Amino acid sequence: MSLQVNIHEAKTHFSKLLAQVKEGREVIIAKAGKPVARLVPITSDKPERHPGSAKGKITIAPDFNAPLPEAILKEFEE
């Protein structure tokens, strides 16, 4: 459910409006009755990270640090 307030009311009661947003309510801020902004709670779209979760899924070639062949090095110089 959303609540619409005018700019003056939003400035006057901003911390109260943020408390409502924190509880999950959407607040629409309007100018002359026309909506111009929406305050919504931030949701975490980032997946939870687990250190070491890729263990065994990644391999590094034994020659990882070996110099590149001359043919490939020349491509970088052009």
Automatic annotation (TrEMBL):
Q: Which domain of life is it from?
A: Bacteria
**Which protein family is named in the record?**
Belongs to the phD/YefM antitoxin family.
For this entry, the protein name equals: Antitoxin
Its function, per the record, reads: Antitoxin component of a type II toxin-antitoxin (TA) system.
InterPro entries, from UniProt?
A: Antitoxin_Phd/YefM, phD-YefM_TA_antitoxins, YefM-like_sf
What species does this protein belong to? Neomoorella stamsii
| Short name of any one Pfam family annotated for the protein | PhdYeFM_antitox
